[in-house]
Amino acid sequence: MPDIIDRAGLEELLAVLIRRGYRVIGPTVRDGAIVCRQITSIGDLPEGWTEEQEAGNYRLRRRGDTALFGYTVGPTSWKPFLFPPSARVLHADRAADGTVTVRQSDEDPPPQAFFGVRACDLAAIGIQDRVFLAGAAADPVYRGRRAAAFIVAVQCTAAGPTCFCASMGTGPRAEHGFDLALTEVVDGGGSVFVVETGSERGAEVLAGVTNRAASADEAEAARDASARAAGQMRRTLATEGLKALLEAGYEHPRWDEVAARCLACANCTMVCPTCFCSAVEERTDLTGDHAERWRRWDSCFAAGFSYIHGGSVRASTRARYRQWLTHKLATWIDQFGTAGCVGCGRCITWCPVGIDLTEEVRAIRGGS
To answer: Where are the alpha helices (DSSP H) in 28-137?
Structure first.
């Protein structure tokens, strides 16, 4: 049975995490959007704010209550905090005798606590775990950050206009992968939070917070709220047979239509919580005695991303959009055993021309 904490308890939870040495990352309002940044109190949370989202449109507006988590997802996910936009992966130094010493990144960031992770983003972290940790060559930068991460999920009780996580089986309710999960229940007197424990570490943290046991009715109400959110979703993506459809539709005329609109700006890949394309840069000092290798985010929408000797493999916007969508929904499955999309809808909201991947798939299927 879950537990109940009030706002004071939520502040205690945040304080416990900070005392344990975590750098707490949570949602906050900045520059007209709800973004993930370091927070130190619940006063940093987006109290009373929500968003209006649609294809190519995002605006904040005030709610009629004081909910702390009364929004869906903003432009930032948790990806930058596990897979940084720029990271040194190794460095080399040459001594006076000519000996060269090569070391992996010596980065040792403080442990991070992610406060307010939605189910879709939790699923995205699971997908990136497969990308960066599965197999014989685990990524050291990601591995160190991931191992230390403490996750406080927040269950969705309302769906946004661009959400389609129910179609992808990734939400709106998180069932595993978290240390603690909160469901916010708002009433006239403020908010209380139904807390589920997902790990021993989560139980240890919750033990330091004032709480009481939830009643059966309170636990059921929390689950019902997530079920209502699933029923509110206006967008859907039919996944049955999708991999075969996209692989067989390589020359479908829809690719030309979407390419005529696409700016190849890479917004979709930058806001996507699972995209992991990167480039490698070599840097050296003027003496040549110190060199570094850096990894930075890149995008398959960049003209130079697929460049090999003689030119780019995907020189046209048509080819690059087709690569992105087909990889995300089809060939990703060949690589990692799952689709690369979690239905968060960010790529729809933050596309400047409002391209909607659910609409593109429907058009390729031949639907209206």
So the answer is: 79-82, 119-133
Q: Where are the beta strands (DSSP E) in 43-140?
A: 49-54, 57-62, 86-94, 100-104, 112-117
State the average pLDDT for the chain.
94
pLDDT digits (tens, 9 = 90+) for 141-163: 999 999 999 999 999 999 999 99
Question: In angstroms, rounded to a whole number, what is the distance separating the alpha carbons of residues 279 and 297?
Answer: 6
Q: How many CB atoms lie within 10 A of CB 188?
A: 6
- Condensed to tens digits (0 to 9), the pLDDT of residues 245-303 reads 999 999 999 999 999 999 999 999 999 999 999 999 999 999 999 999 999 999 999 98
β-pairing verdict for 3-6 and 212-213: antiparallel
What's 269-303 look like in SS3? Answer: HHHCCCCCCEEEEEEECCCCCEEEEEEEECCCCCC
Q: How far apart are CA 200 and CA 206, in angstroms?
A: 10
Q: Locate all alpha helices (DSSP H) within 289-342, ordered by sequence.
A: 317-326, 332-336
Comparing CA positions, the residue from 156, 154, 323 lying closest to residue 247 is 323
